[in-house]
Amino acid sequence: MRIGLHGGFGEKGRTSIGIEAGERHILLDAGIKVGATGRDYYPLIDDAAIRALDALFVSHAHEDHVGGLSWLLSRGFRGRIFMTAETFAESPETLAHYGEREHLDAFPLAASAVEIFAPGDVIDLGGLKIATGRSGHVAGGVWFAAEAEGRRVVYSADVVPDSNVFVMDPLPRCDLLVLDASYGADPVSGKERAAAIQEWIEMHPDGCLLPTPLSGRSLELMAIMPGCFAIHAGMRAALEAQLAPDMLLLGAVSLLRQRLQQAEDWREGEPLPSCPLLTDDGMGRAGPSATVIPLAYAQNYPILLTGHLPEGTPGHALYSQGRADWIRLPTHPTLSGLVDIWSDAGKPPVLGHSCALDALDELRPYLPRLRTDLITGDFIDLKDD
């Protein structure tokens, strides 16, 4: 088996992994890199390799995992496309926000082109089997385990082993683990960060803005709200669709459904509410947040950012200039989670994706078999590992 690192290695964004096994060539995710321009916006894979792909498997509908799909089609990809029903439902909006218009117009994501699977399914491509499991990151989000020639590679995509909302299925033992290292060696738990966010909200009783991705972190924030809150009215249907019992922890469905029913609907043009307001997306580049963040700043309405802030985004600019606060709400593994996942997988050789090289170096003492010598554009052959 040959593994191609097409995006997300030594960097955050454009996550994409290729696997070659015998006659089968597949791609796991095709994301974009927020803040990049030109060719660096998309996975580093050439057109010939794109045309040779048998299939694309998409882990979830966040931009750094699916945002390059229409671009991939524009470069000649004609293979099969696999994703869960939830990912398919959310992908068009992500593509609309992060894809290029010429690609979207010429290569829209059609239902007839997508093969739907459920987490836990195994897809057999003939000589290459792809097992799946719930990621704990978003509703419908999955990890992938590719097995062929007596070898197994596990790609975690984005996982959350200690989510307060979502279920994560254990990763299987493997010969190579491609692990979500988004936070490097950050030791602070999700429970501690949730408490800090609750305290910050309580310190701003007259209202505040919390930009958030539409899927995943929105539910995590709803679960920890210390009191009443509002949502952008356009988010309600998408949030309701994420309340699937087979994706959520026991008790989370009823809690979140109750909180969503009690949440106020806020619409643009209305006064900002005197309670916490959730709007999407989390970086302020797209969706209602792109409009609401400047409005909140102009009115001295407090802003709390809780996720990744790529350079060049409004969120990054606000935080850098001291115009917004930031408390990371973990939607990726922190240090203890990374160590546990690696140990449970049999302590195999491991590659960290979605993480800068300096942060990977800090993580290596805790994961002794972590490779820090590979970056986007490199390949690894399991027979030589």
Describe the structure.
The protein is an alpha/beta fold and about 375 residues long. It has helices spanning about 45-50, 65, 70-75, 85-100, 100-105, 190-200, 215-225, 235-240, 250-260, 290-300, 315-320, 335-345, 355-365; strands spanning about 1-5, 10, 15-20, 25-30, 55, 80-85, 115, 120-125, 130-135, 140-150, 150-155, 175-180, 210, 230, 265, 275-280, 305, 325, 350-355, 355, 370, 380. The protein folds into two domains: about 1-185 and about 330-385, Metallo-beta-lactamase, Chain A (4-Layer Sandwich); about 190-325, 3-Layer(aba) Sandwich (Rossmann fold). The chain contains 13 helices and 22 strands. The strands form five sheets. The protein has a seven-stranded mixed β-sheet with strand order 7-6-5-4-3-1-22. Strands 8-9-10-11-12-19-21 form a seven-stranded mixed β-sheet, with no helix packed on it. A four-stranded parallel β-sheet has the order 13-16-14-15.
Task: Write down the overall mean pLDDT.
Answer: 95
Number of domains: 2
Q: What do we call the CATH topology of the largest domain?
A: Metallo-beta-lactamase, Chain A
CATH class (first level) name of the largest domain: Alpha Beta
Structural class label? alpha/beta
Number of helices: 13
Shape call: globular
Extract low-pLDDT stretches. none
Cα Rg: 20 Å
Our estimate of the beta-strand percent is 15-25%
Give the name of the CATH superfamily of the largest domain: Ribonuclease Z/Hydroxyacylglutathione hydrolase-like
User: What is the CATH architecture descriptor of the largest domain?
Assistant: 4-Layer Sandwich
Characterize the main sheet.
7 strands, mixed
Order of strands across the widest beta sheet? 7-6-5-4-3-1-22
Instruction: Count the E strands.
Output: 22
- Can you give the helix content as a percent range? 25-40%
Distance between the termini: 11 Å
